[in-house]
Specification:
Blueprint lengths: L1 H23 L9 H21 L5 H28 L5 H22 L23 H15 L4 H13 L3 H15 L3 H14 L6 H13 L4 H13 L3 H13 L6 H15 L5 H23 L4 E7 L12 E7 L9 E6 L5 E5 L16 E9 L11 E4 L3 E2 L6 E5 L1 E2 L2
Parallel strand pairs: 1-8
Antiparallel strand pairs: 1-4, 2-3, 2-5, 5-6, 5-7, 6-9
Amino acid sequence: MLIFWLLASLMILAALLLVVPPLMRDRGSGRDAPGDVNVALYRERLAELDRERDREEIDAERYAALREDLERGLLVDAGRREAPRAAAHPPPYWMAVAVAVAVPACSLAFYLWLGSPHGLDPRSPPRGTAAGTGPEPPVEAMVASLAAKLAADPADADGWLLLARSQVVLERFDAALVGFERAHALLGDEPSLLADWAEAEAGVAGNRFPTSALGRLDRAIELDPDHEKALWLGGFAAVQNGRTDIAIARWERLLARQPPGSREESVVTELLAQIRDTGATTPAARSEASESTEEIEPAGASRTADGARIVVEVSLAPDLAVELDAGELVFVFARAPSGAGPPIAVTRTVVGALPATVVLDESNAMVPSRSLASVERALVTARVARSGTASRASGDVEGVSGPVAVADSEPVRIVLSQIVP
């Protein structure tokens, strides 16, 4: 605060130094008075007369007459010059004093009116925030505002859909289900709505897709056989509900839609390889795979208790060349150190919540039999999904860490700075 007022005082002083001195200066100073010029002319003319007399160009009588005329003219001019000087006003010091007082006073008044004086005190809360409380998170404020608008206009289908998706981001899955139900009542069966609704149901059930979620994904794929999110989630839902053959068919269709050589293609390819390697295409094989999963899960739980988790601090680069919306999704996931294959653990937040700290652990596993508890090291990536889906796309903003130890207690710091070409 002291530095601010010191700088402000110096700026006001500089302004006064530019304005006040000219006001205190005599307006007539610095210029030759007309009488002074006439005296000089008189002397010059008198010297010339003396030279003409010495050269005998004029006689003594003519010389005396001309000199008398010069002296008479000089006396008349001197008389005229004395009157204005006697009537001249002194420099306007009162105006200089008035300006010296008015400039600082007006500057302070305008700052108190238009500026932010409270910002000078680091102990004072931000404007609009009650003392002793922190500012409301951007996403929380957005959701609260949207909920208030929907209370006044419950027929806003798009509003209910946006509210439900926002609740999913905040991991308020129960509240999200209410929003999806209201949106569905107004919009009917719509593939994206059904896929998001199924995702929220899985969130309520601890990343397990219940039968109702599987039915919604089936309906979404029926309406749009190439809907990528429905195919992606529908494959996991099918595996969890013992429909491995359907999962393979869905992921094969999803694979055909991925750009050749892309990371998404490698992820889906590895998922298909894993599910085919289990041989879980018959009821007996499915039962065997289920038992195998049950045997692995307790061990994973033990590893979680021993610290199978990664704490990730995600932030935006201060010099990022693109503008991001507060509601855009940020996915944070861990992969095998090679970077290939599906994520081992995934969580998400939003741009408006950054910088944020998230935790990846076994509860974030996409496949129960493959979690952080099954690896020693992992590659951690964070990405702003500008397309709204988990698939990597041009224009996304991401940051990647090197392989880190799963049991390391130190947080992993990732700065979102790279724009996907």
